[in-house]
Design a protein that fits this description.
The structure is a homodimer. Chain A is α+β, with helices and mostly antiparallel strands and about 575 residues long. In chain A, about 25% of the residues lie in helices and about 30% in strands. The longest helix of chain A is centred in the first third of the chain and has 21 residues. Chains A, B: Keywords: Aminoacyl-tRNA synthetase, ATP-binding, Cytoplasm, Ligase, Nucleotide-binding, Protein biosynthesis.
Chain lengths: ~575, ~575
């Protein structure tokens, strides 16, 4: 401790909302350089190295080979995959000294596909799994929660390369399992949830979620059958409407009832008997398109589902003037009689007869609007949002909603990138085919921050032994434990020795703050009590062990703690 | 080999000038993504990890603690040290989504000083040494020679923090010594040379040079006393002029003699009896300033020395119109009679009487120009360039010039950065003082490329065991050596097993190309000969060892090769 670079702080810096991050700052693990940009001090670097070690072992066990790809890419590479234009401001664009457009990479599908195009020729060179642990930059609009949502971060990104979908399925499943081992070994509880493919494209994606109120994602979980999904893609059983005759359309005055709630109250009907209109402008293939979305009044629109249904790269709310330009009216809109717009109806709408919809006129609604008879949707799809209490799509039980932090993601990419980069191979049958790709990410800093958030109390951090910067924190009066320290080091124990000229109280406070799993105290008092006091950071009690055998006892305790973590690795849920 | 990502190429890609780089490309170690931007494939990553391991051990032995600092910095940080404006286009400037100016870091003095300002408070927290191994970007105008001069690169950069100059001297010397161990352990011959401090500022710098024709630096070496320096700063003993009476100035016609050579020939005098004028425009503190440099005709101007003498951030040749605007004449310029310019004379000029100088008039020169009597230099300094054959400044022996690649550099920074960032500490005497800093860099990719350049033959690479991707390359017909492979792996030997369905000839070619130090061949033929053929890559002969004891023999050979490298670590030269 007397030689450590970095020092602990007594107070949490101002403006810190996430407790774990506040402790990482106070304990001297990290320091912020700018919004979302951090330096890792020696304690954090040690923990990160342990996380990296676990990642390397588990990727290696999946057959992964480590590579290192560049951070700065020429823009052409991203243009070729369509992501230069298709990605928003989170992709940092810059120009080099010769005015060539470059980007700071957020992910490496393009570069991998380019490598494959040169380095893979035959089916005999497949399957492969390559990965790297590397710096990335994503210019988040709202960096927050410290390392949980940083702009610069270190990522383990892996890419699977296969001959066909069957091979991809196999590697995807293997990595899904490896991710459970990774988070388990790091001591972080995480669940796998079905997820949106987002800017990656491809056919299937899962996210690994650390369930915590600090998360910004919402996850729907069914405790009965185990279905879990990010709200962005969560399906649910929609309440069926009753069967009844279609009645004639009737225009009524509903002045002031410009919300579903007000309308249902005014007409004394359930919200499920109304149609809700949402006006959006979608960017599809670089062009803006007005989208008129219709869901039943008892449901909300899910914008991710809608974007996927219409193939949009981006969505924004329509302005009032844009809404009126297509013949609709804010607060009183309906798909009946509008022209030149893309009408998207939730798949519950066609089966719901005689809905109350807007009349596209201020203060008026239409009774008995029926799909097919009164309007025709261009797209019918599931675009409604699941929420707390929605019925599970698999078993019908009520689902619950939880907040979560995405600590890992896996994507089945298919051939999108390999086709763009000519990453093909000659198959056994002599035919040239595109390599089938998958992509698998884990952010190291975010993972570390989630571990800190999960394992802490009011006094500080409580590291799982597998990712602790040191296994042991040795406290003594001044430097009175030099010999024990040397013995521990000789025995290969990672020990942080507080040899400073500080009070025991200060040293205990810092030990609790830094959070090594085992604290050893050697003082005149402890020797009177029989030797060295050994205390687990997570427990309040302690025991005294004779100084002579202390090293062996400590090594055994470390080994027990390691076994405990391995034994607690969860069974994979939501296996794809 | 059947599972390795990457494959060997039979031909060197077009346009490759550096043989070692060509082999790295052919052997499947690296691939270029853009000018000066490379991906490292699994073989290279393995070698890089070994280099990193050596760096970590040697930095650790110096008391270094590993940290990890960001790649993207806010521009303010660089403005504060004066390097945002003071650094040229090699510093990549960009804007984030909120239009804040950022840079891609080439080095981290600013960030370290900022960390110190927060994390160091007392003299008891000094000295310290922190380091990182991290991605950097320097937008070189002429990226060339593959990894030797890349734009994106991984660097080990270390920063020493001390109470005073004595502490800095101690750490500087320790790291100077550690660098000899590092290059020695990597099998790279390197010499330490005195160097320019460049954009780092500070008082003293050394570069570690790998002497090779592919280098772009020129180093002056004295074989008699051991003096070595980069030409940019190399001193030398200048031939003394004879003592003689000052004679009156005389203007003569010298039409057509607008070079020193032509002038000396025309007047039948040695070049040392002439004065050479060089016209430059220097950027000093953001302003352009016309500089009139004068060296004796038998010497050349050294622009680095000149820039240091006048404190210039940049220098460019003056245009003819700029030269005439100050009253001089290209080809016939002299400091006599010019006005409003900064006259800098080499320190050999004042002691050289009766020189022939230009008359600032086309076709005319002045005889018998004498410093002090006919003109007065604003600055007198050593601004002449040492060259092959110049006399050593220490012992007077003739020096030789060699080309070199800078593989490492160390700088005494002093307090420039700590003062800019308020990185001070409270000394024992209660006084607040700035931390005294040093900075120490080694580029990993360049180091790897130099090792490849040094250790190769026409068939491929010949890795030193310490940085080889694999110690052993195992060749057999098809997969006939599976058992031996398993035994080697179990014994902890790093072995690349060529189990492909290729001819033995192809396998031998690839083994030579990839360059593992030891090749083992197990075939029906080798078994007839008595077992496994063991051959060192660097030797032509081989021996056959029985299959049973083969693993032990191989392990012993590996250990011998490791010892050989450790025994060959050179004695530090040029110790500061």
């Amino acid at each position: 401790m007397s030689g450590l670079f970095g020092r602990t702080l007594r107070e949490v810096p101002a403006g810190i909302e996430v407790a774990g991050h506040g402790l990482l700052l106070r304990a001297g693990f990290v320091r912020q350089l700018a919004a979302g940009i951090f330096s890792y001090l020696p304690l954090a670097k040690r923990s990160l190295d342990k996380v990296s070690g676990i990642l390397r072992e588990e990727m290696g066990a999946c057959g992964g080979q480590e590579v290192s790809m560049p951070v700065v890419h020429p823009a052409e590479v991203w243009e070729r995959s369509g992501r230069y234009e298709g990605t928003g401001a989170e992709l940092v664009r810059l120009r080099d000294r010769r005015d060539r457009a470059m980007v700071l990479a957020m992910t490496h599908e393009e570069v991998v596909a380019g490598l494959v195009a040169e380095k893979v020729g035959s089916y005999q060179q497949l399957p492969r799994l390559v990965y790297q642990i590397q710096t990335k930059f994503r210019d988040d609009a709202r960096p927050r929660a410290g390392l949980i949502r940083a702009r610069e971060f270190t990522m383990k990104d892996a890419y699977s390369l296969d001959r066909n979908e069957t091979g991809l399925d196999r590697q995807y499943r293997a990595i899904h399992r490896a991710y459970f081992r990774i988070f388990g070994r790091c001591g972080l509880p995480a669940v796998s949830v079905g997820a949106d493919v987002g800017i990656m494209g491809g056919s299937l994606a899962h996210e690994f979620m650390y369930l915590s109120p600090v998360g910004e994602d919402t996850i729907l979980l069914c405790d009965t059958c185990g279905y879990t999904a990010n709200r962005q893609v969560a399906r649910f059983r929609k309440p069926q409407a009753g069967v009844e005759e279609q009645r004639p359309v009737e225009k009524i005055s509903t002045s002031g009832a410009n919300t579903i709630e007000a309308l249902a109250r005014l007409l004394e009907i359930p919200e499920s008997r109304t149609a809700k209109a949402v006006f959006l402008v979608a960017t599809v293939g670089g062009e803006e398109r007005f989208v008129f979305a219709v869901v039943r009044g008892d449901m909300d629109l899910n914008e991710t589902k809608l974007a996927n249904a219409v193939g949009a790269d981006g969505l924004r709310p329509a302005r009032a003037d844009e809404i009126r330009a297509v013949g609709a009216e804010p607060g009183y809109g309906s798909p009946v009689g509008v022209a030149g717009v893309l009408v998207v109806a939730d798949d519950a709408v066609p089966g719901s007869p005689n809905l109350v919809a807007g009349a596209n006129q201020d203060g008026f609604h239409l009774l008995n609007v029926n799909h097919a008879r009164d309007f025709e949707a261009d797209v019918i799809a599931d675009v409604a949002a699941a929420r707390e209490g929605s019925a599970c799509p698999e078993c019908g039980a009520q689902m619950r909603a939880e907040r979560g932090v995405e600590v890992g993601n896996i994507f089945k990419l298919g051939t999108r990138y390999s086709e763009a980069f000519g990453a093909g191979y000659l198959d056994r049958d002599g035919e040239r085919k595109p390599v089938v790709m998958g992509s698998y990410g884990i952010g190291l800093g975010r993972l570390l921050a989630c571990i800190a958030e999960e394992h802490r109390d009011e006094d500080g951090l409580i590291w799982p032994i597998s990712v602790a910067p040191y296994a042991v924190h040795l406290v003594s009066a001044d430097d009175g434990a030099d010999r024990l320290y040397e013995e521990l080091i000789s025995a290969g124990v990672e020990v942080l020795y507080d040899d400073r000229r500080e009070s025991l109280g200060t040293k205990f406070k810092d030990a609790d703050l830094i959070g090594a799993p085992i604290r050893l105290t050697l003082t005149t008092r402890s020797i009177e009590d029989g030797g060295v006091e050994m205390k687990l950071r997570r427990e309040t009690g302690s025991r005294v062990v004779p100084v002579e055998g202390a090293v062996a006892v400590v090594k055994q305790r470390i080994s027990d703690l390691e076994d405990e973590i391995l034994a607690s690795i969860p069974v994979p849920t939501n296996e794809p």
